[in-house]
Structures are given as C-alpha cells and as structure tokens.
Amino acid sequence: MDVENEVAAGCAKDENAVPEARSASLTWQVGSESIGYVASAGHLDVIDGQGVLEGRMFNVSYVATDIAGTPVDPGKRPVTFAYNGGPGSASVPINFGGIGPRRVKTRGVSPVALTPDVEDNPGTLLRESDLVFLDALGTGWSFVAAGYDKKRVYGLEEDARTFCRAITQWLEENDRWDSPVYIFGESYGTMRSAVLMRYLGEACVPLTGVVMLSAYYDWTQNLPGTDLYYIGMLPSFAATAHYFGRAGAEANEAEWFERASAFAGKQYAAALLEGDLIDDAHKQEICREVSEFIGLPYEFVLLHNGRIELEDFRANLLKDEGRIIGRLDMRFSETALLPLQRDSFFFACEDPANHAVDSPWYAAFRSFLRRELGYRGPAAYRNGVWKEIGIGWNWVHDEPGVDETTVAAPNLALDIAVALRRNPQLKVAILGGRFDAATPWWNVSHTISALYLPKELRERIEFKLYSCGHMAYVDEPTLVQMSSDMREFYGR
C-alpha cells in the first residue's frame, strides 16, 4: 500500500462510531425524600445470533447510589427497562414526561409551556427501581449498523429480539445479573413487552415483573369494521361525552364508564352481531341508547347503524363549538381543521393531546443531556418516525403453540400466557385510562379474559384503570396514583 492509500485508509470514517458515553452524579429530592443517582447517556452494542453487529442502541440510565444518604446495594435493587412504542417512537415521553427522575410540569388539558418547567418528578419510578430508557433501533440516536438489512430489525418479532439482546448486554456491562429485572412498555411497547417477556425467559433472564401502560395485544380488536372495535370504543366515547357534559350528567365518571362498559359487552355486542338481520324497532332502541351514552345525535348514530368510527366521533362531538378532540387523550381539544382539509390520514394524525406536550418534552430532554451530562448526539435525534418505520413494519408473528403464522393482525396475548406458565412467579400490571382511544380499555380487558388462565396465573395479573388518556403521566393526579400503585406492585 502506498503512503496516499495508507493515509486514506487511516482517515476512513467509521459509520458505526458513536460519541463517548457521559454521566453525572445528581440528586432527586421531593419534600423530605432524596435519592442520589448517576445519570448516564450512551450506546449499547446489539449483537445478533451470528455474532454480527446489528446496531447500537442509545439509552439513558438512572442508577441510585444512595437513598436518604444510605448507600444502595445494587444487587438487591430492581432495574427497569422502559420504552415507548410507535413503532418508530423514541423513549422521551416515558422518560421526561413520565417515570424518570426529571419531569416537565403539565397543565391539565392545556398545552405545556413552550419554555418547559422541569422539576424533580414527584411520581418517579426511581423510588422503586433503577431505570434504563431504551430507544428502539432507528429512533432517537439508535441506529441499525451500516450494511445490516433493516428488514431484519423492523418487525414485531425482530424488534423484540433486538430488545432482548440489548437488555442482556446492559445487565452484563453493568454487572446486574443478580438484580430483579422489570420491563415497562407503553402503547406499542406493550406489544413488544408481550413477546419480549417470552424471549427474555428463553434467554434465561429471570424476569420479575412487567408493567403494561396503555396496552393492546390483539390487533384485530382495533381494526375498524370489526364488532370488537365498536364495542371497545363505546365506553371510552361515553367517558369523553361525560367529561364534556354531553352525556351522563346523573352519574360520576367511573359509574358512567362502568354502565357503558356493561351495555357495550352485552346488549350492544348482541345487537352488532345480528347485522342487518336485527329487528328495526330493536335497532332503533339500541341506537338511541348509544346516542345517550356517547353524546352524538340519535339520527347520526342510526344513519351509521350504531357503528361509530373514532374519527367521526372526534370530529363531531364538539362540532357545534368548532373544535375537534384528541385521540391519545380525548379530553384535549383544539380548533377544527378547515373544510378543505379533508385528508383522512392527516386528520387522524392531528392530535391535540400530542400537540400539547411533545415539543416541551423534547426540548427539556435535549437540554438535560447537553447541560447536565455534557452529551452531544451523533446526528439529528429521531423522536417520532412512524411514517418511516411503522408504516412498513413487519407484523408477521409466529403464535406460540399454534400451527400457523399470523400476518398483519397478530394476537400477542398467547405470548403472555406462555411466559406466565413458564414463570409462574412473574407478575404483570396492566394500566390504562378511560379517555384513551388509541388502546381502549375494554378491548385489553376482553383480550386477557379470553385466555381463560387458571386462577393461580390470572392472579398474577393486576389491572389499574385511571381517569386519564393514553399517556397516563400527563395527568398529575394519575401520576401520583400510579406511583402509589407501582410502589405496591414492586413491593409484593
């Protein structure tokens, strides 16, 4: 090799290079409580089954060093791996909006201040566990290795395997194999968790607990046009109509939701199953009841045969006020789109609940990394790239114990059942909100009930329903209650 080529080779750019990890010793303090902890930002090497670099996963971890001045024994302290969903979402919301030691203060259902007010999070899970927030490959500063086929990464089972590898790598690098291990997923992250809890067991990781926030497992129940879609939506529509004073004035929120849930699972479900064979008088009776529950005009409900799509509900509940409501949290609202803005996909993505919080979370997170950890990212941070990753996601799933592979509409509840049967000491918490239209509570409860788990396994699953939307932690009273529930969950 001549000198010129030697210089060129020595200067060749490493496409998989990442910045040096950075950390800082910090203190969380709320009232008389205090926790000393080390916050770290860096990358994990994800090595596939053939020993090839699959990618590098960016993560932010918070590891306690002392509680109220008393040193922590890391071998006895739990560690929780947390993530958002998408597919195509980084973990900023659940970190700086939810359970991390720092939190952007929210303002009910009003937009968060553009200059975010960051506080030590009174609802942080750091009280109970060390925390590791993972960004899926292709999101945040995580990336698929140069030359590695992204089709081997961007899929339901592929993604779960990647997270399994990253978690085992973190346990190895941080010498935490003797710690109780938890996973905490939100939204699509609960689908990831359903498969991951089985994969971690197969990788001999002794998983202690799983927290599922805003969960869904059976994809078919969320497909418009199926009876289970309309049944599941009705209680959430009813809760929202009650919130805006359009229905149920005689009942409180919880009572109205329970009444709507009972109606949805019985009279309404039976009527939908009849299709156009339903008697006209019975159809009118059912549509009148639906109207009374969800606050839309009887004539509108009848015209739609009692089957109300989410986007129709969002567009029409407050139509007389010139406003549309949210999807992730239907309590949020904003001014309606212009009449010429008829694109259905655009409308579906216009979510007041997202608009109210996303930018301040992101700004606070970036400021924290730069100013307190001194971490500089390698490229643009990819906070939400569903249009790039999620649309082409591989939904093929090899259902455990079933002699067929599902395409496009998997049911991951079987993975949960298998993981529980193999590890009957495993505990699961399923958390959700009444105002969540992305992952309706009725559907999640129904999916688990359809597993017919034996009593000893069914008792390993607990359900917590809150007065909130999809991102439960946006609602401060819910955050406080969820923190109390997690203290009990981690402690048992």
Verbal overview:
It is a single chain. By secondary structure, the chain is of the alpha/beta class. The chain folds into 2 domains: 16-219 and 359-491, Alpha/Beta hydrolase fold, catalytic domain (Rossmann fold), CATH 3.40.50.1820; 230-355, no CATH class. It is built from 17 helices and 17 strands. The protein has helices at 3-10, 92-99, 156-173, 188-202, 227-243, 253-274, 280-294, 298-303, 310-316, 344-349, 352-355, 358-373, 386-389, 413-422, 441-449, 455-458, 476-491; strands at residues 22-30, 33-47, 53-67, 70-71, 79-83, 102-104, 118-120, 130-134, 143-144, 181-186, 207-213, 323-325, 333-335, 397-398, 405-406, 427-433, 461-466. The strands form 4 sheets. Strands 1, 2, 3, 4, 5, 8, 9, 10, 11, 16 and 17 form an 11-stranded mixed beta sheet that branches. Helix 6 (253-274) runs antiparallel to helix 7. The protein is globular, with a radius of gyration of 23 Å. The protein starts with a helix and ends with a helix.
How much is the radius of gyration in Å? Answer: 23 Å
What is the mean predicted local confidence, pLDDT?
93
User: Fraction of residues in helices?
Assistant: 25-40%
Which shape, going by the Cα principal axes?
Answer: globular
Beta-strand content bin: 15-25%
CATH first level of the largest domain: which class? Alpha Beta
**Distance between the amino and carboxyl termini:** 65 Å
Q: Give a quick account of the main beta sheet: strands, pairing sense, barrel closure.
A: 11 strands, mixed
Parts with pLDDT < 50 across at least 5 consecutive residues: 1-11
Task: Write the CATH architecture name of the largest domain.
Answer: 3-Layer(aba) Sandwich
Please identify the structural class as seen in this structure: alpha/beta
Number of structurally distinct domains: 2
The CATH fourth-level homologous superfamily of the largest domain: Alpha/Beta hydrolase fold, catalytic domain
